[in-house]
């Protein structure tokens, strides 16, 4: 309140000073104009009076002039000055003016020029005009006219009064409006900012997620959010460590991984290499936003870098990426946390077309996924693939030039040649490559024209990781049938020359710790609430979250849903399946075709079965953030993963992690790597439409206690084998290898 009063007083004083200045200027101008007007009028009337009544003044004939004649000319007095001893007033009022005007009359006669002057008589302003009589017989004579000038003061006083009242009201109005603007535009946001600070202190993250009321406060809000998150993380760390000590559990956490890595790395640098960057900067109008792209690999690796620090090398893909890096093409991420460094590699359009879209995604991707899509191999694609691998190798070698025994963790099928290229330049570095997609059998991989080059490139690593032992076995068989090497099955390693490469399974997971495992006390949103925003009414719904890819079995999934309604028509109008699909690699024809096919299949089934306010399939074709997907995970009756061939599929584990009420059912393809450990899931063959349809019915009708038993078991499994345990296992294995 004191601030408001002080602000109003300051505004009134400031505007009052300005008003005073403008009013003073106005009065000065007005006074000058009034005086000029009075002077001009007096001279004119004096000349007229003289011509009409005083032309024979030298004869002394002036006694006929009366007071009424003088008042007709608006004079208050007239006198004739013959000399200092002979002054003749023509009316009684003129007598009072003789003494105060005598000096000015003398000055006028000395100057021999008619002049006017302002005098004060009895507190009244009087304008006297002395008209010199220029006649030889009257050398020092003059007629003096007196006009009332007091009206000018009255006018000036009225101007002062009107102006100040007007300016005061304006000042008051401006102050009130300004106060309202300040309260709404500044004080209210500041009060909300104070609430944010209180929320940060109390850990109310829900309040912190609300959008700032004003854009100019956005940077400050982001800083406060970052501080609050750090405080929450620190608080959670302390609570979790206390629980761990109390329960004597050995759950891997970011803090435990961080401590373990300090021991393992012992000051050595950790470098992660991938094609997809963890954060990209994109333009949103005039602003630049930092977003996390959709990628299971990024989801898995980002918590590790946040826990351990280090460097992530990846391709810059955002349209504003170049503007956000320093002179070394680096930027600290995540935004406002600065946990690790991202170095961006710039690829030309030709390199991206042939390396990424060509050899990687038209060649290796379908080759490794047995999804009945023929791989395409072109020499120009492989040439660019080799060129980009060399580009990355040069960048990594540059980054570790001052490091000893750096740990290099290469990600995925985009960089099969990279391990050998790095080891040739830096044999002391410990290099591992993790293959996130399946490895096919030896005969299938043998169709690749450059299989030997790819295998030799990968075997340059000290460690090769796959999701499952089955994929490890396929790889070792491929090496055994293709290269002159020694495959040591006892410890699953390969020896070429004097170099050993260890091949091991490392089932990847998600960031899920003890605090995430705890059951939520908050009420769960019902399915009807989630789907109401789409104009649908239903009692239950299932969820699927996939990139739109021919390996994900989306067509088979939709056919299973159609068959489910055909076999169990009582669910028509009561159940909807929600498929969240992110378009991917649409520049490749096979991907563009699958997007069109999936969309057409959903439309066909909907047209066949839909009723008013209900449809069997809700297909949401766009990228959704993790925050947008979580409500679907939490409220869906089941999640359906129908991969035709998949390395792991983290959607299955994300769904389990989101079920903080320990309910829900997971329907999982037997061809996804996740099926090897999630024993509480309903395992299906996605090609078996009848089996999949029956699994949907079983999921919807599974008793609550059975759901609780299965979900608790799977949640414990995901917690025990989270991404921090995965990272620790890989880095421990790397550290144990002697170069």
From TrEMBL:
Assigned keywords, A-Z: Membrane, Transmembrane, Transmembrane helix
Single Gene Ontology MF annotation: alpha,alpha-trehalose-phosphate synthase (UDP-forming) activity
SUPFAM superfamilies linked to this entry: UDP-Glycosyltransferase/glycogen phosphorylase
A GO CC term attached to the entry: cytosol
Gene3D superfamilies: Glycogen Phosphorylase B (3.40.50.2000)
Pfam families, sorted: Glyco_transf_20 (PF00982)
Family, similarity comment: Belongs to the glycosyltransferase 20 family.
Protein name: Trehalose-6-phosphate synthase
Organism: Paraflavisolibacter caeni
